Amino acid sequence: MWIAEGWRDYELLDCGGGERLERWGQRILIRPDPQAIWSPPRRNPLWNQADGRYLRSHTGGGRWEKAALPESWEIAYGALSFGVKPMNFKHTGLFPEQAANWEFAMDRIRQAGRPARVLNLFAYTGGATVACAKAGASVCHVDAAKGMVAWAKENAKRSGLEQAPIRWIVDDCGKFVEREIRRGHRYDALILDPPSYGRGPGGEVWKIEENLYAFLKLCTGVLSERPLFVLISSYTTGLAPAVLGYLLRLLVEPMYGGQTVWDELGLPVTETGLALPCGAAARWTAE
User: CB under 8 Å to 106, separation ≥6 — which residues?
Assistant: First the structure.
């Protein structure tokens, strides 16, 4: 398991009973997590002292109970800074387990010994974008949601990257990639973190099980002659890490050689010393 162990401003204090007890900076949140199926003893008193808790509705969706939460606040991961805030569907604008992938991407960029152009698709609030830019890459950040791209810009500013070579694109990822292929634009690294289900600006429907293979095949058309890495991650519990690895071995390795590895993403749990699975990822590298 690839575990995000470098956090100081985030901590998964405990989990179980279908919930997580988390520290986001100085704020304590309780959020649903379907993976935490065990019954925790809940010895930590913060289970009863949380600043906010997301309660699922039996009819779908849910709501936040906010005892003492500001609208938003800032947390840091090393030299990177992010704004977080409670949103619909339990989200905060950041997936802390992705820090394991940020470290991977930054390491590959720094070791490349040459300029690197990164295409970050389904880029959300820009965690991978600011990580790659901080490592010295030029980044093209693409997401269909205008609000998420604006949030990502703020995260870049918070991280001292306001003047970094980042292109901010609000568009359907598939249509954008098709245009980049026609334009002859190429990238040395590709990052994809697709949702399980979504809609583009024009109402385009995305279902990961139905669309990911064809989409990744399309994306190979924007890779440069000497790409550094391709990274895919998924929060969808139905997709095993080996499925993502299988895609990379089918579509990328025959073109460029290299090697593919895959594993679960996870977060360390302070109470038990174990790690909570938080998704899947696969990484292709040229070496």
Answer: 131, 132, 134, 135
